[in-house]
Design goal:
The protein is α+β, with helices and mostly antiparallel strands and 125 residues long. The protein is built from two helices and four strands. The protein has one domain. Helix content is 46%, strand content 29%. The chain has a four-stranded antiparallel β-sheet with strand order 1-2-3-4, covered by helices on one side. The longest helix is centred in the N-terminal third of the chain and has 50 residues. The radius of gyration is 31 Å and the shape is rod-shaped.
C-alpha cells in the first residue's frame, strides 16, 4: 500500500485544483482583454463621428462665406441631413451698430456610440 502512494506522488502532471485555478485566471484575463478592445473600438467610433461632424460644420461655414450676408435674414437654416448627422445654420445679428455683420453658428447633431451628441462652430461675417 505504501508503494502505491509513492508511485502516485512521483507521477508528473497537474491536479484538478491546479487546472481549475489556472482556468479561472485565464478566463479573467480573456474577459478583461475583451472589455478593453470593446472599449477601444467604441472610442474609435466616437472619434470618427466627432471628426465627421467637425468636417460638416466647417463645410457649412465655408458654404456661408459664398453667400451675401445682405440677402440672409436671421433665423435657422436646416436641418440638412448627411448620413446620420443633421446640420443646422443659425444666423443672427448680435451687433446693432454693424447691421451687415452676421453671427453664423453651425451646429451638427447626431446619435453615436455614446448616445446623442452635438458639435458647434461659429464665426462672424
Amino acid at each position: 500500500m505504501v508503494m502505491r502512494n509513492r508511485a502516485r506522488a512521483s507521477r508528473p502532471g497537474f491536479t484538478l485544483v491546479e487546472v481549475l485555478v489556472a482556468s479561472v485566471i485565464l478566463a479573467i484575463l480573456v474577459v478583461g482583454i475583451g472589455f478593453f478592445f470593446g472599449h477601444i473600438i467604441r472610442q474609435s467610433d466616437v472619434m470618427d463621428d466627432k471628426t465627421r461632424a467637425l468636417e460638416l460644420a466647417r463645410e457649412g461655414l465655408e458654404n456661408m462665406r459664398t453667400v451675401s450676408m445682405d440677402t440672409i435674414g436671421n433665423g435657422t437654416i436646416g436641418p440638412e441631413v448627411v448620413d446620420k448627422f443633421s446640420r443646422y445654420l443659425i444666423v443672427s445679428s448680435p451687433f446693432p451698430s454693424l447691421s451687415v455683420a452676421r453671427l453664423v453658428q453651425c451646429r451638427v447633431v447626431w446619435t453615436g456610440a455614446n448616445g446623442p451628441d452635438t458639435l458647434s462652430l461659429s464665426t462672424v461675417f
